[in-house]
Amino acid sequence: MSHHSELPTPIRLIDQFGRQVTYVRISVTDRCDFRCVYCMHEEMTFLPREQILSLEEIQLVAECFVEMGVRKIRLTGGEPLIRKDVMHLVDALGALPGLNELTLTTNGSQLVRLAPSLYRAGIRRLNISLDSLQPKKFRELTRTGELQLVLNGIQAAKDAGFKRIKLNAVILKGRNDDEVIPLIDFARAQGLDITFIEEMPLGEISEHHRGESFCSSAELRELISAKYALSPTPETSGGPSKYYQMSDSSSRIGFISPHSHNFCGDCNRVRVTVEGRLLLCLGNEHSIDLKSILRSGNLASPAEMLQVKSALKKAIVASLAMKPERHYFDNNEEPQILRFMNMTGG
Ligand code: SAM
Ligand code: SF4
């Protein structure tokens, strides 16, 4: 009999609206080598080490989720690839039976070094953030980033064998809205997909007024349609993206519009923050603390580790009752959510 046999129901993570959680996004660090203007303050204070989950703790949480039916895990951050020894975690998750897909969202700065190991660990899809193809503007938007390093990283990922790499771009009006077409042309030339993400009002950022810079997916689609006819594709990635196809390219163009409440109905995901909070919805504060459970036993002892795991699973199952039906990003100006994106990983 298995150690979780005391759980009352067959363990599938189904919430009160009938949605099954099959996808978990895990933030492995709040730190980053970039300071993107829409994501961070120029001067960020990062969490002290003891407040963030260890790689072993993250692994245990991931194992619990996979044993309860989660099929896809995305590692994000902060910049996941700057966490020391992150490949230990990637290797362990890559070997988890039952996990169909392990993916990663990265700013690309470490890919020259790590792309081959990521591929070897079993990752097959990467999201790489890229908001500009002009070195100077790239530097302005990321404050510390170097474009060439990221471009080399993209090449390294292709060389390592990654297919269907997806670029993520956040477009800010008056900043990089003139780069929408160049970014698409780059994606076409390189055989990549590209998704445009609407800026979300997460965290007080000081650098610009969110309302002034906000560029909606509808505006972007119109701008793009002047050059490339877009036809909607039926497929979804099990997420909030809407994908379009151009007639003469295999590159797909996606749009993520958190402001239009169009995807909460089949939301299949939850998030784990770097501090071990399980967030039931990106746009709400509903969460439970997994860290205190993780630290309630000595994980080096196999018996205690099993107890912790069992307690984690119970807490996760119970937390689903809190998953809100939808979120409310109704006001682009005021951050209603004080967490920064680097805490939740987007
Ligand atoms: N550092 C990695 C990266 O940049 O890809 C992973 C973490 S980053 C928080 C994940 C994604 O969130 C990036 O594509 C980034 O552009 C996006 N992002 C950050 N802040 C955002 C905001 N306020 N609104 C919308 N997207 C945001
Ligand atoms: Fe770092 Fe990613 Fe945030 Fe940019 S968006 S500051 S790369 S975590």
Structural write-up:
This protein has eleven helices and twelve strands. The radius of gyration is 20 Å and the shape is globular. By secondary structure, it is α/β, with parallel strands linked by helices. The protein has a single domain (16-344), classed as TIM Barrel (Alpha-Beta Barrel), CATH 3.20.20.70. The chain has helices at 55-67, 86-94, 111-120, 135-142, 147-160, 180-190, 210-213, 217-225, 291-294, 302-319, 341-344, and strands at 23-27, 72-76, 101-106, 125-129, 166-170, 193-197, 230-232, 241-246, 252-256, 269-272, 277-279, 287-289. The protein has a twelve-stranded mixed β-sheet. Helix 1 packs parallel to helix 2 and helix 1 crosses helix 10. Helix content is 30%, strand content 16%. The two termini are 38 Å apart. The structure holds S-adenosylmethionine and iron/sulfur cluster. S-adenosylmethionine binds next to strand 3, strand 5 and helix 11.
Shape: globular
Question: What percentage of residues falls in helices of 4 or more residues?
Answer: 25-40%
What is the chain-wise order of helices and strands? Answer: EHEHEHEHHEHEHHEEEEEEHHH
- The span between the termini is 38 Å
Largest sheet: 12 strands, mixed
